[in-house]
Every structure is written in C-alpha cells, then in structure tokens.
Amino acid sequence: MKRILFVAAAAMILAGCPSFQSERPKTPPPVVPVEPVEPTEPVTPPPIDKVPTPPKQKTTDWSAAVSPLVSEMSGASGIESGKVLLVDSVKNNTNGSFSVQNATSAIVKAVDSSHLFKVVPQDVVNTARKTLGLSQDDSLVTRSKAIGLGRYVQADYVLYSVISGSNKQRDIEMQLMAVQSGEIIWSGKNDIDQ
C-alpha cells in the first residue's frame, strides 16, 4: 500500500512540473547599422618569398680531359696496334658524384678515334658484367676485376681509369694493362677542368 501511495504522490508532483516553456513571441536581435571606415593607408599584400635559384650544374668536358691521355698512350712503346682493348668503367674516388657512364663513353670515343685498337663494344661489356655478377655502378672496381672482365671478353689489353680528388680539383689516371700478364704497360695522369 505504501508503494501505491508513493507512486501516486510522485505522479502528482511530476504532473505539476511545467514541461513546456511558455510560448513567448521571439523577437530578432536588434540590428545596428555600421558605416564602413575607409583605411587611411593603402593595404599592401604581404611580401612573397622568392624561391632561390638552384646552383648551376657544372658540366665536365670529358673529351678534353681524356683526349691528351689517349694520345699519349697511342705513342707509348710496347703497344701492338690492332689488338682488342677493353675500356673498363671509370672508378670514382672523389668525394662527389658525376656520371661514370659519360666519362667512360668519352674514353671509348677517344680510343676509337685513335684507330690504334679494336675496342670491345659497350653492349658486350655490359652483358659480360651481368654474366660475371658485376654491377654497372660498381664502386669497388679493381684492377683484378678489370683483368678478369678482359679475359672473359677475350681482350688483349684493359684500360683502367680512376678519377680522384675533390669537387674543386679532380684528376684522372689511366693505366693500360696486358690481360694475360696483368703488367701495366702504360700509365698517365691529367687534371680535369671544370
């Protein structure tokens, strides 16, 4: 019984609570007109950041660097004309980077134009490198790898080249080696102008 009385009392109390807000007419907020103010100074856009121009790429005239060495090599004693020559990829011992393929191509062109050797074509050299597991960009090119590659393509001579120094001052050293004996027949060095 107490329970019923309690429920009835709770219902009466809740029935007396207003559940709706009174319906008052809503008025919009007052609109206050504002007159535009003209600026006294002209508005300037913020400064635009200019993108700095990148440094100019230095190009190397590989032909001018290797031609004197190839001419010197052509006049060296103990070299037999008409033999097969393998021009090995140039080794980069500098603290910078450059296109090893461009340097190697310049050497091949200079040797070809001397008409002293029969140069192993670069596609044959590339195929032989793949067969022997040597990368095109092998930074660990050694004389023994060059001689092994020369034996594989049945060359008589190998022209091994190393570029050393820094980005400011580089030089190229070339060595002509007999494939069968590994003997260095000729060696020369030249500065590379940038």
From TrEMBL:
Residues 19-61 are annotated as: Disordered. InterPro entries: LpoB. Residues 42-55 have a biased composition (Pro residues). GO terms for cellular component: periplasmic side of cell outer membrane. Regulator of peptidoglycan synthesis that is essential for the function of penicillin-binding protein 1B (PBP1b). Interacts with PBP1b. This is Penicillin-binding protein activator LpoB. It comes from Providencia stuartii. The gene is lpoB.
